[in-house]
Write a structure and sequence with these properties.
Order of helices and strands: EHEHEHEHEEH
Shape: globular
CATH superfamily: Phosphoglycerate mutase-like
CATH topology: Rossmann fold
Structural class: alpha/beta
Largest sheet: 6 strands, mixed
Helix content: 25-40%
Strand order of the largest sheet: 3-2-4-1-5-6
CATH architecture: 3-Layer(aba) Sandwich
Length: about 180
Amino acid sequence: MKGTSIKTLYLIRHAKSDWQDPGTSDFERALTKKGHKDIKTMGSYLKLRGVLPDLVLASCSLRTQETADGLADRLGFEGQRDYLQELYLTSPETLVETLMSQEKSFDTIMVVGHNPQMTEVANLLTEEHVAKVPTLGMVAITFDIEEWSELEETKGEIDFFIFPKQFKYYMPKQIRTVLDFS
């Protein structure tokens, strides 16, 4: 990286959502108990890494709002949260355009959305290949740019790509000690 300025983007697919009620619209589907539990695990991991975004952007569907709020609360984030209709099941290009319009002062942006959009954007903005972002999968991408408007001109580097199943058989002691599943 050139060393000018670092911007970090966290692309996050919403947590596991409930398909039990066939009368519930896609837009109104809430999270399952497992989804809420995974938010605690993943939020604790992010907190241990010192992740604290400057801005949270999320699709306005219920499951993405619940995911964004759960993670933000877990991180102690009290800043700006925007729930955007244009991020609900939209094109990767629309998400990139939305990111490019963000203020220069935001160094770290967390986006909670849907697949295939999250996977496609991760692949669009990096040289690496992500096969599929699973539910509550998180792709952290760093960019050597001054302003978000420069996203189209550069490729970022994946800092990490994590998801809940990685913690199924092994959960670091630091995460276990901060989790409260009550």
